[in-house]
Amino acid sequence: MANYFNTLPLREQLAQLAQCEFMDAGEFTDGVDALKGKKLVIVGCGAQGLNQGLNLRDSGLDVSYTLRASAISERRQSFLNASENGFTVGTYEELIPTADVVLNLTPDKQHTAVVSAIMPLMKKDSTLAYSHGFNIVEEGMQVREDITVIMVAPKCPGSEVREEYKRGFGVPTLIAVHPENDPQGHGLAQAKAYAAGTGGHRAGVLKSSFIAEVKSDLMGEQTILCGMLQTGSILCFDKMIEKGIDAGYASKLIQYGWEVITEALKYGGVTNMLDRLSNPAKVKAFELSEELKVIMRPLYNKHQDDIIDGTFSRVMMEDWNNDDANLLKWRSETAETNFEKTPAGDVEISEQEFFDNGILMVAMVKAGVELAFETMTAAGIIEESAYYESLHETPLIANTIARKKLFEMNRTISDTAEYGCYLYNHACLPLLADFMKNIDTDVIGKGLGEQSNQVDNQTLIQINAALREHPVEKVGAKLRGYMSAMKKIV
Ligand SMILES: NC(=O)C1=CN([C@@H]2O[C@H](COP(=O)(O)OP(=O)(O)OC[C@H]3O[C@@H](n4cnc5c(N)ncnc54)[C@H](OP(=O)(O)O)[C@@H]3O)[C@@H](O)[C@H]2O)C=CC1
Ligand SMILES: CC(=O)[C@](C)(O)C(=O)O
Ligand SMILES: [Mg+2]
Ligand SMILES: [Mg+2]
Fold it and tell me: Which residue is closest in CA terms to ligand 2's atom 5?
């Protein structure tokens, strides 16, 4: 097998990267009908597997789980996830032959082995579904020609796929049909029904391609979504400790701060997030974010370049073949960081205080969202896709840090995302070393303590215009307009 993307002519690569059509709510009036009465068998019951299965069943679909024989015999967590939620669980031999749709929700590293094992058992004219395009695009998996291959990719950690559904909302979702495998022409109808079953249509669905999803998902997760929040947590915490801020306070400000400040982002974009600051703090946050964008832009370009040409995938797959040695080493190193080892203090921090004392965090989120959006769109990803992958998903990742710090984020996201997050963190920590030398508690930990809200009018006018004029704000206003069912979290 070879990297599918790299086998295509540039014309086709660009066309697939640009595949992105916002699907109006009217396209989902049939709901889950295309899958009603069909047997959906999910392989794997982890972050996506469990939460998607719960949503699909609540949406009236017939869902069961097939797990590795060892998972069942050893009653592993995946078996408990499925059985304790009342699902039928069986081996591949027992359930795959009965499946109309097989949802492959195992780790990307396992996809070639899993698909190779289940394909011979899949009945003629059935469907194979993915939630990430890595196996098809980066590995070039060849699927039997009678099998329809679709993708329904939530732009969100598995846990929040379920939480947003329970709130009556959903998460933005990319759907696609693999052009090499749509023999009966019903791939799109099935993908739409699957997306509706997860609740994705309530947040927004893009008709995308396996290529557009992979090349944007890898970029978002490695940079703004997980990498920036990991690096920002470590740098901001260590700076506060260096400057004598109480460790419990510092830990709480960061652990819960990302969620609070990015909730403003989710509702009103970067503009609303900065509008939550005083004028002097907004000017400071804007200046810091502009400085951060200059420093980090080469890193964001390198991540996108390595994703586009397959370098990232090759390097990660080398680690797969080395028993995940780097992934496991970097995971344990993360657990040893001061931030991870310091519990949040039993101290009251008001919602506004997270903004006032977290000016640097606001600047990092602004810089990361804008850089990721700008880099993705420069690489051919369409704005709507780049918005979901940079701005809208950041608060959903922040929700996981609020639960149990970087441990929970890295446990909930895919191993692929976790690996990319560590690559970014290893590069960004030294990259920001000089920048952090000039940082003090006025922007992280204590706030400006300004006596008045006065700033230069011209400066404020220019900053407000720059915030509102950024393309992520324009496409964001349109997409948030469709999210009438969005629910408050903080
Ligand atoms: N995590 C996330 O938030 C997101 C993930 N995705 C995508 O969803 C897919 C699933 O990822 P995720 O939910 O994170 O995966 P998890 O690691 O959370 O769960 C993997 C599941 O697969 C099972 N599994 C592991 N290895 C094998 C194997 N060799 N054969 C069969 N089953 C196996 C595990 O059970 P056991 O080990 O007990 O057998 C577990 O139930 C991936 O393609 C990922 O890219 C997409 C969007 C977000
Ligand atoms: C949660 C999500 O969308 C990620 C970051 O892409 C992943 O876990 O792979
Ligand atoms: Mg993703
Ligand atoms: Mg991902």
Answer: 221
